[in-house]
Design goal:
Strand order of the largest sheet: 5-4-1-6-7-8-11-10-9
Oligomer: single chain
Number of helices: 17
Bound molecules: adenosine-5'-diphosphate, 6-O-phosphono-beta-D-fructofuranose
Radius of gyration: 23 Å
Structural class: alpha/beta
């Protein structure tokens, strides 16, 4: 029986070792949380890295890692610490990530990292080739694996291969600065169908292909000597029912079954009944605009002191990629900003920012989504931003205001949110005031439209659309060959 093989750098499960025993937790990040529902319902096997280096897993536990992975239809690919350094912390997150998010000043060009990136991509491709049987469909994900499609194609010319990029694709003028731009484009072009979250990323990619590789591009089709490659946009959705149901369950809870976090949130509301909670949730990443957001909040409080004790920013930042210097620097900057602003504005009854630097269980995320009246998401660049969608899905009574950066892919589908430019503090400050005073009827009107769209274009629909388009592309390719 044929199957779908999903490949992403990180598996949806994160393995750690506690007291000589394996512990499994869900991975954080849009790709893992989004694709998990597709994987759960379908006949697929998911290949990826389980989150520990080869050296960190004792010999006698290696088999158990594979067993744990197998329980969830996953196959673990083990990477050494040198591979993780060069491939993951190196080329993926010090070259491609900053470049594709327009942080050119952070982008490094390190030949050794590039060589390791190639080796690790080959390692992933080899694992896929081991598992591959005629008739299988291969779906490769994201910027860590740009070379894999062509590595598979070289060995299995007839394979059906899809590729989806979960981060922005930059404009040609930015992409062209990459020393290995030709190899990267050729790597991706091994796929039959290449998907992006937005039409803009799709156009940028096509423009780079036509200008760098000089291939013929007609609308969204690229003609290679032996086949046609199709490029399209598929904005990723969320598992809407899961978030909606979790919110409904949350409201059913009695005071005894409530989480500790929820009890604290409730207490806060009792203590200052008219204070509104402003939520922000992200991985601690410089692309997410966390430092800008805190500065914009300071700007808001400085110029509008009447909101002191009337609002509170609840900021959850999940540790991420802390071996990369910019992430460590950002951590220090955020710690210092939070300390400074809390020191500057706090009163005996009130702290302006509640800052959590950790991952949280799903239940606590739902507590935050359902309790905070305003969500403030201000990425400087973001491929999609699923948090924005999850916030809206949990607002089952349709109240709540989403303030969202125009730089997030999600903004293209969420016009009813208050859309802002994160670099414009005055605009962010005005949006906070508008959100604070927005009548319930208007909130409900806006969220009704947003929810309708998110419910319809769920993650299941996203995956189905991609798979359907992949099959059609393949049929057209076979027809093209027979001409
Ligand atoms: P990215 O993929 O860049 O991390 P997204 O906003 O698209 O950004 O996705 C983040 C995902 O991670 C969301 O699905 C969100 O629910 C999940 N997430 C964020 N913070 C936490 C956390 N503290 N604990 C668990 N999951 C989290
Ligand atoms: O969305 C981009 C992305 O890199 C995804 O591939 C991943 O789900 C998420 O960010 C988290 O990144 P990492 O795997 O580096 O923790």
């Amino acid at each position: 029986m044929s199957k779908t093989i999903i490949l992403s750098n990180r598996l949806p499960l994160q393995i750690s070792i506690e007291n000589d025993k394996l512990d499994v937790t869900p991975s954080v990040g849009g790709l893992a949380t989004g694709l998990k529902s597709f994987h759960k319902d379908g006949d697929s096997v998911w290949v990826g890295w389980p989150g520990l280096t080869e050296e960190e897993i004792p010999e006698d536990l290696k088999e158990d890692v594979q067993k744990k992975a197998k329980e969830e239809n996953c196959v673990a690919v083990h990477l050494t610490s040198a591979e993780i350094d060069g491939f993951y912390y190196g080329f993926s997150n010090r070259t491609v990530w900053p470049l594709f998010h327009y942080f050119m000043e952070y982008t490094e060009s390190d030949e050794e990292h590039w060589q390791i990136y190639k080796q690790v991509n080959q390692k992933y491709a080899d694992k896929i080739l081991e598992l591959y049987k005629d008739g299988d469909v291969i779906w490769v994900h994201d910027y860590q694996l740009l070379l894999v499609p062509n590595m598979i194609r070289e060995q299995e010319p007839e394979a059906v291969i899809g590729f989806f990029n979960h981060i922005p694709f930059p404009s040609y003028e930015v992409f062209r600065t990459l020393p290995w731009r030709d190899e990267v484009l050729k790597g991706v072009l091994g796929a039959d169908l290449i998907g992006f979250h937005t039409y803009d990323y799709e156009r940028h990619f096509l423009s780079s292909v036509s200008r760098i590789l000089r291939h013929q591009v007609d609308f969204n089709e690229i003609t290679l000597p032996d086949r046609i490659v199709k490029v399209d946009s598929f904005p990723m959705g969320i598992d809407y029912r899961k978030f909606e149901q979790a919110a409904l369950d949350h409201f059913e809870k009695t005071s005894e079954t409530k989480s500790e976090l929820q009890r604290r949130l409730d207490h806060h509301l009792d203590a200052t009944p008219d204070a509104k909670l402003i939520l922000s949730i992200d991985r601690l990443d410089y692309t997410k605009g966390i430092a800008h957001r805190i500065r914009a909040y300071e700007y808001f409080l400085d110029r509008n002191p009447e909101y002191i004790e009337k609002v509170r920013l609840v900021m959850l930042a999940v540790p991420s990629r802390s071996n990369v210097p910019q992430y460590r620097r950002l951590k220090r900057e955020v710690d210092e900003l939070v300390g400074r602003i809390n020191g500057k504005f706090s009163t005996v009854n009130w702290t302006p920012i509640w800052y959590f630097y950790r991952s949280m269980p799903f239940e606590n995320l739902i507590d935050l989504y359902t309790t905070c009246e305003i969500a403030l998401l201000t990425p400087i660049r973001d491929g999609m931003n699923l948090v924005a969608k999850e916030y809206i899905a949990t607002r089952t009574d349709k109240t709540g205001v989403l303030i969202l950066s125009e730089m997030a892919g999600a903004a293209h589908e969420m016009n009813e949110a208050l859309i802002i430019n994160p670099n414009n503090f005055e605009q962010v400050s005005e949006a906070l005031k508008t959100a604070f005073h927005m009548p319930k009827e208007e909130q409900m009107e806006r969220n009704k439209m947003l929810q309708k769209r998110l419910r319809r274009y769920s993650v299941e629909k996203w995956a189905q659309d991609f798979m359907k388009a992949l099959r059609t592309t393949r049929e057209n390719r076979d027809a093209f060959k027979s001409i």
